[in-house]
Amino acid sequence: MKKNQQVIIIGAGVAGLAIAIRLRIKGYEVSVYEKNPYPGGKLSEIREEGFRFDAGPSLFTLPDLVKELFVLAGKNPGDHFAYDALPVITKYFYPDGSLITAWSDPEVFAEELAQKTGENKFRVLRALKKSEVLYRITHHVFLERSLHKLSTYLRWDTLFSALQLHRLDAFRTMARANQQQFRDPRVTQLFNRYATYNGSDPFQAPATLNIIPHLEHNLGAFFPKEGMYSITTRLFQLAQELGVEFHFGAAVDKIRVENKRVKGINLNGREIPADIVVSNADIVPTYRHLLSDIAPPEKILNQPRSSSALIFYWGIKKQFLPLDLHNIFFSENYEEEFRKIWREKTVYHDPTVYVYVSSKQKPDDAPPGCENWFVMINVPANTGQDWDVLIQRARKDILRKLEKMLGESVEEHIQTEQILEPRTIDSLTSSFQGALYGNSSNNKFAAFLRHPNFHPHIKGLYFCGGSVHPGGGIPLCLLSAKIVDQLIG
Ligand code: FAD
Fold first, then answer.
1. 289-317 pLDDT per residue, tens
2. Is ligand 1 within 6 A of the CB of residue 207?
3. Does pLDDT of 125 surpass 60?
4. Which of 52, 247, 270, 431 has the fewest beta carbons under 10 Å from its own?
């Protein structure tokens, strides 16, 4: 039966690739239509003058979700996609001069925090244990199944979670919880930062987001041997080998619906029939443009968006020994930084700066003696700010800050520069307002305010990717594809 069923996937982001692979393995005829000339969406790369940059994601967690796709296809994942576990996850540089190395091993990490800040080691270990408990309670309900299907609530593991809902810590903010569980403000700041992993504000988001450190410190952080972009290239290759058909430079104009059933898509005035359509495009343009005849779920579409990012890709003609793969240069006043981003919707003059240098792990990403710096700050989603002015100001602030904290000049070593910012994130990947992760998770009911992975009234229409349940970030995008796979059956 499935052999004759035509599936169209709109978008070749990581979630689009994953659902294409899953459905093709089940025997569907799968075609992917992608508006860009390349696959990957946000998970793409930039090359310039011998430098290679991962353009979007830089932190890789839960690699088993990628491996699973190769296993489903009957392949040995190790032959196709190799990665290393990182012993050091991040180096944290503080304005007071302290430097904390976040070792992945929880014991060593807790010892490091104890030595550098005086924080009680057992408090740190207790916080990581609590993070693990949160994960155990939530993951199979909130992350791995559709919250919008009755069947999810009729399972034993859901019942187990329901009995423990009081432990979700949803009624305090993350910042409040961290302030209460740690004594040293540097440790609190470090743990608050995890809210940014899904584009949230620790001073508003529920403490349930304290689930995130578990991913890094208990399950581990990883680096694909060929760089982050190889997640895209390897999945794309797998999809092609399985017989998925790809069309690039193909911006879909419309999803065709008749009598509450999906009929296919319109592309450049052509009607292309399909039994099933999965949109991997952001849910806002999916409704506003592709389903403009259908009543949109305004309450969901009008939720505040997650934060966006301003990234400078600098080819640096020098090597900086203090830097590791992932580096954070914290702001003095974290609360004020987030107030500027979230309340004033602008860029803070002393931003926390993230510097990702993949050439530390993969030397051929930069010419000999050089480094490829991905320099990112969190910024609000685009609501019409004067970005040209904000970007120029931020560039100066970032350079001043890095030079002060590293104690050496940076600007004179910049050989190449490219910039990605909210407007270009939107135009390149159709992510509404340039938000990195769809709607924000600041609201404690955010998981329930995301669009389901299916259309409740249109048969054959599904959604996957960072803007729909269970949300943004590579692992969650891959899980959204898994949910759609379960739903289609
Ligand atoms: P996308 O990557 O947005 O892909 C959607 C695709 O649909 C695009 O290719 C787009 O062109 C296509 N499309 C849209 N409309 C149409 C149409 N009408 N017709 C045809 N095609 C269409 N995640 C992490 O896990 N770790 C990180 O460290 C991390 N850091 C990030 C840093 C940055 C700067 C950015 C931008 C993102 C980061 N993320 C990170 C988030 C992560 O990149 C996303 O969650 C994930 O890549 C989103 O994948 P997706 O499949 O949902 O959608």
1. 999 999 999 999 999 999 999 999 999 99
2. no
3. yes
4. 270
